[in-house]
Amino acid sequence: MVSALYAVLGALLLIKFSFDVVRLRMQYRVSYGDGGFSELQSAIRIHGNAVEYIPIALILLLFMEMNGALTWMVHVCGILLIAGRLMHYYGFQHRLFRWRRSGMSATWCALLLMAIANIWYMPWELVFSLR
């Protein structure tokens, strides 16, 4: 299954972002919240934003593959998702709004393409079956 590759990459991103938050919490000795440290605020938002988008995107990617989308379509959506998350991270880390905006745009495009593909490839005869 192709979608498993992107699930692994998404999980690795979430782990990296989580470690960044933990490292900064330890560095600044902050147990709750961000302690007013902008670097920690950014790390928390990078992680939180990834948690908000990656899980639903991976579910859509898996369903897209299960519904019979072509392999190259699954790769395009998976690459767009991971690239978008990396661009967002880079832009947030370096305060480059264009990178953040481009990363969010790539993420939204991936989500939209996956939603459309799932509608297109959905086995409608089974969805509305009365059995």
Automatic annotation (TrEMBL):
Compartments, as annotated in UniProt: Membrane
One GO term describing the cellular component: membrane
Entry keyword Cell membrane: no
Keyword Kinase: no
Coiled-coil segments: none
Gene3D superfamilies reported for this sequence: Membrane associated eicosanoid/glutathione metabolism-like domain
Assigned keywords, A-Z: Membrane, Transmembrane, Transmembrane helix
TM ranges: 6-25, 70-92, 104-122
Source organism superkingdom: Bacteria
Pfam families per record: MAPEG (PF01124)
PANTHER family per record: GLUTATHIONE S-TRANSFERASE-RELATED (PTHR35814:SF1), PTHR35814
Identification of the protein by name: Inner membrane protein YecN
